[in-house]
Every structure is written in C-alpha cells, then in structure tokens.
Amino acid sequence: MATLRFFALKELLNRKPLTIDEPGRLTSDYFGKFVFDRAKMKKYLSSEAYAHVMEAIEKGSRIDRKMADQIALGMKAWALANGATHYTHWFHPLTDSTAEKHDAFIDIDANGGVVEGFSGKLLVQQEPDASSFPSGGIRNTFEARGYTAWDVSSPAFIVGTTLCLPTIFVSYTGEALDYKMPLLKALAAVDKAAVDVCQFFDKNVSKVNSNLGWEQEYFLVDEALYMARPDLMLTDRTLMGHSSSKDQQLEDHYFSSIPTRVIAYMEDFEREAYLLGIPVKTRHNEVAPNQFEVAPIFEEANLANDHNQLVMDIMKKVARRHKFRILFHEKPYKGINGSGKHNNWSLSTDTGVNLLSPGKNPRTNMQFLTFLLNVLKAVYEHQDLLLASILTASNAHRLGANEAPPSIISAFLGHELNRILDELEETVPDKKMTPDEKTSIKLNIGKIPEILLDNTDRNRTSPFAFTGNRFEYRAVGSSANCASALIVLNTVVAEQLKKFKKEVDAMVEKGVKKDEAILQILKQYIKDTKKIRFDGNGYSQEWVDEAARRGLLNISSVPEALNAYLKEKSVKVFAANDVFNSKELEARVEVELEKYTKKIQIEARVLGDLAINHIVPTAVSYMNTLITNVQGLKDLFGDGDEYKALVGDRLELIKKISNHIQSIKAKTAQMIDERKIANKEEDMHKMAELYSEKVKPYLEDIRYHIDKLELIVDNEMWPLPKYRELLFAR
Ligand code: ADP
Ligand code: MG
C-alpha cells in the first residue's frame, strides 16, 4: 500500500479549525499597532526630526546623518517598547520573495556590558553579505558588495521580535539589484509626467500618485497531503495527476460559504495583517476548489506592493499553524483555474482627483479622456514590455498554455466608453473647429455619465480592463512581485504622457487653441489604439485569430518575451525616464532567463525522479499482481479457450501498463539527454530557449503516460495523493 498517501489521508480526519485570539475588540483598536506610522513618529521623535522625516517622505529629500541618529533613537525606543530585539533591512531581491538578515540591538559599552544600540548609520544603510542574490553579473560574487538603503516612504514595522525597515538594494556602483528601486523611479517618472499634463487642466496639481489595489489569489492544500507530493514541495505545482471526476464544472465553489478550517486561517492572517497596517478587506472562495482570494483597500503603489509582499509572507507562515500549505503558483493543477494577482491601478492627484475617473464637467472629463487614452496608447505601443513584465515560467502555464487565456494584451473598455470614444472620433473635425462645433463637443464630453462607475462590466476575460475608475491589469501572476508589472506600466505611461505634452505644446505654439489641440490629438489616439480595444471573449479561439489579423503580439515563450527589454525602443524609454540603464536591463534579463531555466530544470528533475522511482515501480508491482493472477488462472483452467476468454482483459491491461512504462522510461531518458545538451550551452538566452523548446515539452509527454497509469493502477497502491484529495480536503 502507498503508506505516505494513506497516512496523510488518515491525518485529515483529525483536522479541526483553530480558534483564533482576538487582538482587540474592534479592528480599529489594533490596526497598525506594529507600524511606525506618523502618529508614532510624532510621539517618539523630536519635532525637528519629525519634520525632517515628513519632508523626506513628501518631497523625497535626503535624511542627513545627525537627523538619522535622532530618528534611529526614537525608532529604537518604540521598537523596544513593542518587544523587538532585532532589526533588519527588509528588501525585494530579484528572487520570488523578500529578504531579511537580522541583527540584534546589542552593543558592548565602555565597561564591557551590553546595551541596546541602534544608530542612524544602521538605520539608513546596511551592507548585507548578499553575494548569493541574483544580480545578472552586475556584482561579482567574490566582491559581494551591495548595500541596502532605507525607503522612508514606506513605514518601518515589527514582525515577531524584529524591526523591519523597507529598503532598496543596490550594487556599490549604484545599479538596482531589486524591484523596489526601479519601482520608486518609475513612480517618480509617472508623477512628474502626469503633473505636467495635469497643468493643462488644473494648475493646482503638484503631485500625482500611482495607486495599486492587488487581488491575491491562492490555493490551500492540507499539509499532510502536501508532504506526500514531492512535486508540490519542490516546484509548487503538480507535475502529474489525472483530473478529478468532479472539480470546478458546477462552479459551486466560487463565492460559496468558506470552509471552517479555511475561515479560521483567513481570520488569523488577516489579524496579523491588521497589526501591520495592511488594510485587507475582501475574502472569498475562488472558482477552483480549494482556491481563494484576498484583497485590500488600494494604497499608494509602493506601499501597496510592500504590503502585498509582506502579506504573502504572513500567509505562508500562518498557513502552517493551520496545517495548510499555501500555493501561490499560477497553475498548481492542470485543467482547472489558475491564480492571478489582478493589479487595480489608477493615478490620483494631491488635489484629490482620480485621473481615471470621469468627472462632473467638460474640463474634468477632458482630463479623464486624456489620461484614459494616454494609458491605452502606452499599452498599445509597448505590448511587448507588458508581456515581458508578467511572463515567467509559472505564469506561462496560466497565459498562452492549454486551457488558458492567450498571451495577448488587449484592453476592455465596456460598451458605454467605446461609444463615447467612437463618437468623439466622429465629431472632432480634422480642420479648425467652428465655435458651434466646439460648444457641442464640449457639451457632449461634459455629459460623460458618471454611471460609468456603476457600469463596471464583468468581462473577466480581458487582461487589461477598465473598470470605471481604474484599470485592472489581470494578466499579472499570483506569485509575482507586482513591481515587475508596475515598473513597466508606470514607465510607459510616463513616456506617453511626455509625448502627449510635447504634441500639445507644439500645436499650441503653431497657434492652435489648447483645447482644440488636445481634442485633435486624442482623436488620433482613438484611431491609433483601436487595435487593442476588445470587449469580446478573450479566451476564445476567435479572439486569437482576430488578434493575429490586427497584428497584436501573442507571445507565450518566456525567453522570447524577455527580448522586449533589450530592444532599442525599450532601452530608450527606460533611460529617458531614468528607470533602468542598459546595463541594468541586461542584468535583469539575465536574471530572469536564469530563473526560468532553473525552474524548468528543477521540474524536469523532480518529474524524472517521481517517474522512475515512484510511478514505474508502482506500475510494475501492479503488473506483477496481474501476472500472478493470470498465471494462477492458467494453473486452474489450463491454457485452452476457457482460460483465454477469462484472462483476455488482464492480458490487455498488462500490455497497456507495459507500454506506458516503456514510454515513461524512454522519454525520461530523452529528457535527460536534452538537459545535458542544454546545460552545455554558454549563452544564457540560448540555454533558456533550449529548456523551453526541447526540455519542457517532455514534462507534458511523460505526464500523459503517468496520468493514464493512474487510471489503471490499483488505487490502494498509488503513491501520490490524487487530484480529488488535494482539491477537496479542507
Ligand atoms: P472586483 O469586483 O474586481 O473584485 P473590488 O471592488 O473588490 O473589485 O476591488 C478590487 C481592488 O481594486 C481593491 O483592492 C480596491 O481597493 C481596488 N480599487 C478600487 N478603486 C481603485 C482605484 N481607483 N485605484 C486603484 N485600485 C482601486
Ligand atoms: Mg477585480
């Protein structure tokens, strides 16, 4: 019998929901308790130091050393009062998670005793021996020099007994080695470009924030079952497993009542999130069995992204208390829904205006249309970068694979908005407007109904959907650091807004009235962006064909998609907006290629191991029992017709099993050979391509035979938990 699997199933019978401690009566009583927020700064810092930090947060000014010491002192006092013993610079290296190296708050004083110490120098900068983080060759490992520097705009927080300082991670020569630094730069670029464009409409705007509301999807799996699945343990996804007779066909999981063990888990991690000031708001069952979602109230993008990374970490830890494991992989199970992380994105001004929300009068609506169309234009012009920023080894199973949406960027606007754009295209004349025309166009623009807000169409199949007051970038993968997508999105929008301003200025210089110039340019943008506007079913074959006719990109190969970063056009855009220089881009692509290659390599190894050491021996054992049975019948009945009639089906089965075993062995050997060839390749890009084209297909090939065996082999002998068990145990 397959011991581990049945042991795991037995464990399940004893699972009970945990009871969770209440940190306070009301959420507001303890929300942000472990965050060094403005209120706490005010309490723990001198008024001079407080003003200094505020200026750094709001204007991006530098923290000077003397002030840093004062701030460190206040922060230490707060941290010690809240049970912290250690501090760490918390950063986002180019791996799939965050990094931290803890140091204790201890110093040896003049008398040889121990005191709690923490200085401005330690607050502002740290030099972790970070030689093993991916750097794409920027930092030679033997130098191991990179440093982390405090990001004042994201508040410090305490996890357990450790004070965590959000930081950027850069090489000694200043190149970004993380996600945060380029994200901050992209946010600064879009801020500047958007403020400039806002001046056409409102001179009072002096800052534009980029906002992010992420919707995090995930799967839960019972810990015991997880431990019996080496593929889940090592690759976060199932590399084999026949589909369950019932999975999501009835759509009875989506929004249904949350299982008791799961709700206890959700409440537990939500409370931890609240203590850390993360405003998680929504929770529900997702489409696939054992798939769930959590979403917060949106925040400024850099903070929101820190919160997303932090919450993922908390969710992982808390899951273990509840004897669950969490799967952030985009496609842990073949044949059923994958997980995304919708990035709800908008731009808003320091005057309180959401630039992607229709306003109340012609002026604000014109501003809305301006931003809407500039975003569409940016997305259209840089589809390649958008794809490159979201395609990874794991997300490629969710986009562009079998039973998955295609890897095409299109934008959904909804019926109303499409009508408005079509009308605008028709009514704005190519020549100078008559006063009558102007009045009537403005009147129409003024009437852009605010009902757009309630009119958020539920087209779930669009990768980039306008939902009334924001764009919802749905193609982002559930395991991703949102920064990857947001760096690109904000950079290309910044670039486009700069172009737009230039175009308007040039026309105004030639004597065209500003409003008229804006309208004419927008009209052109409406024409230019028609190709990515698509409201139909984005998952259908018709759309794939239609998109090809429209000349839209459809790239699902990760190595191919990554090329976009190195195209001349992209290099220019990143440089012009001071987000990446070409060296950083090359390094980033190298890191991504390496990550991709290694992930496929690991999957191939795990599958090879499972196939040869788990599945084949099981199949052979079962075959042997069949052979014994056939042999026994022969002893009883002789080898005449009666015997033949009796054993026909088993002989067939023996042949089938034998054939599958042979195929598994032969294909595993071939896969290993392909790996050997690929591993000899010195060019990172070529190696990734070989893994994508020559190695990866074997994963499906081998799996096919294993899944067929699963249907034949005695259930009692099957070693790995089956899909029905993984998906329905909760
Ligand atoms: P859905 O119906 O798509 O699940 P929700 O109302 O749950 O939408 O919102 C999803 C996310 O979008 C939440 O994080 C929410 O705070 C965020 N969101 C709402 N408005 C905006 C906005 N203007 N900018 C950015 N994010 C927003
Ligand atoms: Mg949504």
Written description of the protein model:
It holds the Pfam family Gln-synt_C-ter. Belongs to the glutamine synthetase family. GO terms for molecular function: glutamine synthetase activity. The protein is of the alpha+beta class. The chain has three domains: 158 residues, Ubiquitin-like (UB roll); 394 residues, Glutamine synthetase/guanido kinase, catalytic domain (Creatine Kinase, Chain A, domain 2); 134 residues, Four Helix Bundle (Hemerythrin (Met), subunit A) (Up-down Bundle). 51% of the residues lie in helices and 11% in strands. It contains 24 helices and 17 strands. The strands form three sheets. Strands 9, 10, 11, 12, 13, 14, 15, 16 and 17 form a nine-stranded mixed beta sheet that branches. Strand 3 and strand 4 form a beta hairpin. Helix 14 packs across helix 17 and helix 22 packs antiparallel against helix 23. The chain is globular, with a radius of gyration of 29 Å. The protein starts with a helix and ends with a helix. The site of adenosine-5'-diphosphate has 14 residues, from strand 9, strand 11 and strand 14.
